[in-house]
Amino acid sequence: MGGWAEQLINGLAVGAVYALIALGYTLVFGVLRLFNFAHCDVMMAGAYIGWLCAERLRLGLLPAAVAAAGVCALLGLVVERFGYRPLYGASGMPLMVVALGISLLLQYTAMLLFGAGARVYPFGYTGGVVRIGSVTLPASKLTALLLCVALTAGLELVLKYTRAGRAVRAVADDKTAARLCGIYENRAVSLAFVLGSALAGISGVVYGSMYLVSPLMGLTPGLKAFAASVIGGIGSIPGAVLGGLALGLAEALAGAAFGTATKDMVSFVLLIAFLLLRPGGIMNSKSGTGRV
Which of 35, 125, 180, 218 is deepest in the core (most CB within 10 A)? Predict the structure, then answer.
């Protein structure tokens, strides 16, 4: 029983990271109808910022995550302002090419600064454990779950009860109506990038503390977070969280039952199944028309 409980917690912890990344995809898609595939490399940048804070400044998990969130929020603002904004109004292909270019730029910048080898967070940063009866759980994975819950709740509060958050929702619902109401569309888009990139930075610290930090580390979790956002219902914040947690659980259970080789496969099998049977995802009954 203890082994299965540990697998479930591990799956939920990894799923929480997928959920945090998927929230960033969802925010940007809501206002631009664009999948920002450079988002996973913003996560990678956050992992390196967290590693620098832990290795050089000896900061703990939460201070490192806050630092990574701040730096990645600024990075997201720069990416939106100088990468995407000049192409607003263009068709989807130029924006996709820009996303690919930004992704490669971030990867090779990380290689130039830190080398191509993997880095490991200091021992003690992830070494703590929590014992619940006969079950031993890594403290970092419980932290990932708590962060996911807290940040999702915080994001919902920002979007529902602040003026800037309501502007983001208005632009996501109807750009024309938002303009007529005096809402500055570009500011709402910038805020979506800032919030999404901050979440990516935090997820990078959590994921890096559980595994390794490398210039290409964002590729696999980024693709899985994309799958999670589609499974949950693209454009839906609760859907992104549900999709991420469901994907993490499915991976953990498949790995325990059929071996670790099936963990990566199950994510994309589920993605294909949802696209064929329920393209709107868990939270949307029709095709992906959800809103932030």
Answer: 218
SS3 state at 46: helix
For 140, the token pair is 């970092």
Task: Say if CB 224 and CB 265 are below 8 A apart.
Answer: no
Bridge partners (DSSP) listed for residue 130: 137
Residue 245 lies in a domain: no
Total number of domains constituting the chain: 1
3-state helix, strand, coil in the chain (%, to 5): 75, 5, 20
Classify residue 177: in a domain, yes or no.
Answer: yes
- CB-based burial, 228-246: b 16+ in 10 Å, e otherwise: bbbbbbbbbbebbbbbbbb
Length of the chain: 292
Distance CA 286, CA 281 (A): 8
pTM for this predicted structure: 0.88
Give whole-number Cα distances, 292 to 61, 105, 283, in Å.
29, 29, 12
Reduce the DSSP state of residue 174 to 3 states and report it.
coil
Q: Is residue 4 part of a domain?
A: no
* Rounded Cα distance, 165 and 167, in Å: 5
Containing structural domain, residue 68: 15-217
105-157 residue pLDDT tens? 999 999 999 998 899 888 554 556 666 666 666 676 777 788 888 888 888 89
Tokens of 44: 């990678």
Collapsed DSSP state (helix, strand, coil) of residue 10: helix
